[in-house]
Automatic annotation (TrEMBL):
InterPro entries: EmrE-like (IPR037185), Nuc_sug_transpt (IPR007271). GO terms for cellular component: Golgi membrane. This is Solute carrier family 35 member 2. Signal peptide: none annotated. Residues 338-373 are annotated as: Disordered. The keyword Cell inner membrane does not apply. It comes from the Eukaryota. Belongs to the nucleotide-sugar transporter family. SLC35A subfamily.
């Protein structure tokens, strides 16, 4: 009897060891995916926007990414419904049309995300990739401030200190760039550092507001990540088409929707469309510390690659500013000290995790799968 219990305990121990090993492996995979997606999207956008020759219309790229995202999510929902088309159609009509109030809640964040995606192209077209990557971390500051103001959440002292360091680091980088414009923005007359900086600041403000607004209106929602993305994508496509017509309508009517599209442009669009969805799946296996480390590491990757790809100049001032930002991001992701009871632990998630992409998508993660019809 004792021998049987001993064997059972040994088997349970081996099983738990195997599970922890699998979880550790998934965390490393998550880290790699987050770093690659964060860095590659920014670097690839910068690359295609600084190439000589015909420029594609960024408004059309935003619309195309939304369409691809919706089609992908519809395919996944169809797969979950075992390719039962009738059941899938009924489910989507019920989730999107009959529950129209729930769908309409996503109109505001979808408008903000569409604006943000367009601003991202504007910012990266006018700023070095490394500078954009560092400055874009201001979204952590805006998200935290909106969380405190709109959701009455509390931040730990370490998090407040990290926000101050973050702001100081971004400010140092801007001072460095202001004094080094010729080196940081490589010679095109159509590149404007001020326009890029304004675009990234507005993008950070919109990112922070959208993330907190999402948490506020969708708290307790049981809709799946894929349904949420279909709802967002529908609004995003319509709003993106309106933006396309307003900004580039005449030029697109003359030259065509796909004018200037190359293999590299398609790669950027696919990265923007599928990268965020991939991160939404992977991020379930990554805790806040890992996400903070991934963000920090992607800044390093973007900076190193910018030196080789774009001749970006890294000096002592930029290194100091970027170092402060990297340290602040990691500090902010650290869990709060459990000072006393459950009230403290419940507020440990006080700060909304920053979006990693663009629509970046942690806020869409379902708390429960919807019941089958």
């Amino acid at each position: 009897m004792a021998g049987g219990n001993h064997n059972t305990a040994r088997e349970e121990k081996a099983t738990s060891r195997g599970q922890s090993e699998a979880n550790r492996r998934l965390k490393y995979i998550s880290l790699a995916v987050l770093v690659v997606q964060n860095a590659s999207l920014i670097l690839s956008i910068r690359y295609v926007r600084t190439l000589p020759g015909d420029r594609f219309f960024t408004t059309s790229a935003v619309v195309m990414a939304e369409v691809l995202k919706v089609l992908t999510c519809l395919l996944i929902i169809l797969l979950q419904r075992r390719f039962n088309v009738k059941d899938t159609v009924y489910f989507l009509v019920d989730s999107i049309v009959f529950q129209y109030k729930d769908t309409l809640k996503l109109a505001v964040p979808s408008l903000i995300y569409t604006l943000q995606n367009n601003l991202q192209y504007v910012a990266i077209s006018n700023l070095p990739a490394a500078t954009f990557q560092v400055t874009y971390q201001l979204k952590i500051l805006t998200t935290a401030l909106f969380s405190v103001l709109m959701l009455r959440k509390s931040l730990s002292r370490v998090q407040w200190v990290s926000l101050l360091l973050l702001f100081a680091g971004v400010a140092i980088v801007q001072v460095q760039q202001e004094g080094n414009k010729e080196a940081s923005v490589s010679g095109g007359s159509n590149q404007n550092y001020t326009v890029g900086l304004v675009a990234v600041v507005i993008s950070c403000l919109s990112s922070g507001f959208a993330g907190v607004y999402f948490e506020k209106i969708l708290k307790g929602s049981s809709a799946s990540v894929w349904v949420r993305n279909v709802q967002l994508g529908i609004f995003g496509t319509v709003l993106g088409m309106l933006g396309l017509w307003w900004n580039d309508g005449a030029a697109i009517a003359r030259r065509g929707f796909l004018f200037g599209y190359t293999d590299m442009v398609w790669a950027v669009i696919f990265n923007q469309a599928f990268g965020g969805l991939l991160v939404a799946v992977v991020v379930k296996y990554a805790d806040n510390i890992l996400k903070g480390f991934a963000t920090s590491f992607s800044i390093v990757v973007s900076t190193v690659m910018s030196v080789y790809l774009f001749g970006f100049h890294v000096d002592l001032l930029f290194t100091a500013g970027a170092g402060l930002v990297i340290g602040a991001v990691y500090m902010y992701s650290l869990p709060k000290a459990t000072a006393s009871s459950s009230s403290s632990s419940s507020s440990s998630s006080s700060a909304v995790a920053p979006r990693t992409d663009g629509p970046e998508l942690e806020a869409f993660l379902p708390k429960a799968e919807p019941p089958s019809d």
